Amino acid sequence: MTKRSFCVAIDGPAAAGKGTISKAVAAHFGFAHLDTGLLYRAVGAGVLAGGDAVTVAKTLDPAQFDQDSLRTPEVAQAASRVAVDPDVRSALLQFQRDFAEKAGCAVLDGRDIGTVVAPAADAKLFITASADVRAQRRFLELSGKGMDVTLEGVLADVKARDARDRSREAAPLVAAKDAVLIDTSELSIEQAIGQAIAAIEKIKGA
Is 1 within the bounds of a domain? Predict the structure, then answer.
């Protein structure tokens, strides 16, 4: 990728906290933010509605995203399934890179930002947590929205997504070798955000 003013790549598995951390980091530094997971969720939702995955990926309009409808367990699983398709990933790859280029300074979060989308990112973070902790967080989030879910079911979904994300041939979920690892299992969100900002400030000041 062409060198930009400053690019932050934040990766990690589902419900590790990377979305919340990414938004806070972007707000702190005044950077643009892209939740790339929403792109895959939108494609997954399109497939559930009867569309062709690659066609949906090539015609996405993020301005029309209804984030609440994209946050259901069904859409999450569909997103994980379409994410293994190399043609879908290729279609969305250029969108993500174009966003980072146009934004100048940007925070992108997803599964393969530091390894594939922006391997030359100035700062790379990998946010993780145990499967049990992530499932508990997601269960509280979904049940708080009135969704009929069980902790056991959410845990099974989290583990299934992890397996697909880590084993897919196209851009598997893996921490970049130069990424800063932040395990949020025993951190409050404030502590996790603080660690992320400190790590980026250290890199910016280097």
Answer: no
